[in-house]
Design goal:
The complex is a heterodimer of chains A (268) and B (250). Chain A is an alpha+beta fold. Chain A has helices at 13-16, 89-109, 125-141, 182-194, 198-203, 206-223; strands at 38-40, 43-48, 51-57, 60-62, 65-68, 74-78, 81-88, 148-155, 161-166, 172-174, 177-179, 230-237, 240-248. Chain A has a single domain, classed as Glutamine Phosphoribosylpyrophosphate, subunit 1, domain 1, CATH 3.60.20. In chain A, strand 8 (148-155) and strand 9 form a beta hairpin. The termini of chain A are far apart. With 250 residues, chain B is an alpha+beta fold. Chain B has a 5-stranded antiparallel beta sheet. A 5-stranded antiparallel beta sheet of chain B has the order 3-4-5-6-7. Chain B is globular. The termini of chain B are far apart. Classes of the chains: A alpha+beta (268), B alpha+beta (250). Chain A: Keywords: Cytoplasm, Nucleus, Proteasome. Chain A: One of its GO terms (biological process) is proteolysis involved in protein catabolic process. Chain A: Non-catalytic component of the proteasome.
Chain lengths: 268, 250
Amino acid sequence: MNHLPQAWGRPRDDVYGAYNASFLPQDGPKQHTQSPIVTGTSVVAMKFKDGVVVAADNLASYGSLARFTDVKRLRQFNTRAVLGFGGDVSDMQHLDRLLTSLSLRENYADPGSSGDETDTASLDAKNLHTYLSKVMYKRRTDFNPLWNHILVAGLDDADKPFLASVDLLGTTFSAPSLATGFGAHLAVPILRRVAPDEAAAETLSMDDAVNAVKEAMKVLFYRDARSLDKYSIAVIRKDGVQLKEDEKLEGQSWAFAETIRGYGTQIH
Amino acid sequence: MFRNNYDNDSVTFSPQGRIFQVEYAGEAVKQGSVVVGIVSKTHAVLAALKRNAEELSSYQKKVIPIDTHYGVALAGLASDARVLSNFMRQESLRERLTYGRPMNLSEIANRIGERAQINTQQYGRRPYGVGLLISGVDRNGPHLFEFQPSGMVNEMLATSIGARSQMARTYLEKNLDQFADATKEELIKHALSALKDSLSQDKELTVDNTSVGVVGGGDLFKLYEGQEVSPMLASAFGEGEGEESMEVDT
């Protein structure tokens, strides 16, 4: 089948007229992605004593429309790495495919000495982040970027907590607490109050880190119009990954909103 | 002139089901000087006997460091070993650049095996004329792989390839149960002893003709040549032997 609409025609051109091709791209250069279409908003992550916690809501927006409300933006790669995707969802799906084939290749090459099929830890979070940074930088160099900001959370080769980001330009950055998109402005200060530096993160308990991330997700839902109160959260530790994909924000209080004019539903 | 009609290229079977070109490549390995490899639970050792074309010439390189965690020892055509080792270096570097991790040894061994096998299956190509011992430490521990021109790759606990290598393998088989728990020094001693067993009567191991590659226990791959092997020879065969003491004017 010819998938180009201008060639489709109509059953009765004499009745309906020719297909109106004016909205179709005219002959011109091949265009790469100039902006994302369906997008996911913030990903929030934080290191703690013996692991990393990462969260992202389940919303994919089409512009300002909350189009898809059950999109999982956290992807478990293996027993020691979880990825969080912000930005374009179709590019996320492309990366998902890429990672699936990478994971297959890895498991054929080195199934691991333990003989356990789920122990696919031949690529740790650090290796994965290095790989993704090369993929992202290659695509931006082709002037055809993957429109994402990715957080890689997990453990490195010494089983130490690892958290780093890579964006659509291939820029890498690492810190004890990270967030993408709106969260980079709003969530990071909240997380830094809990653990300002690496030393503080090394003594932080899992519960404190999880609570801080949940709190940040809540503040993001209050203030980010492209966010949702349904979210996914993953905790990566030495003994494996705990991923919950259908969480609901708890303890919301919208009392503050009533005093702000132009915020939310206004009755008067 | 030809031994028979079936050894002109590597894609023709003989009526007996043999591919002579591949067998001749295997013979080239047996013409090369002997190399020995052993692994313990912690270390991997390569030992090689270097040959010089004539008295006054230099010795042919036998052990090639590839990456910081592994190296290869060769028996056969050195120029083919150069091609393969360059390929291995490139692949190892690529692994470090794209993933930030050291190359997996079974992976690289199988990859050159694949390359070598393709050479035996296409018209107009020839098999590599070199055998390799690939030895090092990766995330699964120490490894030793034997590579043959046919494309055969096997993981070994200890092995030897090259001229008169059967004598070395006999030594290795006899002492096999000591290797697993051996220290680095003991492992080197065993490798040198196996190497010595394969020498013809008029030859002996000296600082000039012995190469040793060692990796393991957290240390990077290190190639010992020249005066650096003299303490190893001394501890393996006793003082005096192997090392020609320098003559000094008195």
